[in-house]
Amino acid sequence: MQINNFSILIHHSGCWDSSEPLPCESTWNIPLHILEEEMLPPIARKQPGRPPSNDRKKEFNEEKYKSKVTCSKCGTSGHNKKTCLKFTYHN
């Protein structure tokens, strides 16, 4: 325990004295060429991985949008041309 307490005291003595609070921002002396320089945000790079989906999150009880199936042969809805009974030919 004595060695541990000693190392903690040495650590704290090195940390506490090194940081001092900054003065008030109104008292800072900033050179004019730095004040006139325009600061731009960094260039955004494309992140690795799959991009996030832009779809809106559905609520718990919200139903999914279902598209109506229409037949390309007869034009009615509810079936496709494979199951169309209107233009089937039986031999």
Automatic annotation (TrEMBL):
Protein name: CCHC-type domain-containing protein
UniProt-listed InterPro entries: Znf_CCHC (IPR001878)
Keywords in alphabetical order: Metal-binding, Zinc, Zinc-finger
Entries under PROSITE patterns matching the protein: ZF_CCHC
Domain (CCHC-type) ranges: 71-84
Compositionally biased region (Basic and acidic residues): 53-64
UniProt-annotated stretches for the region Disordered: 41-64
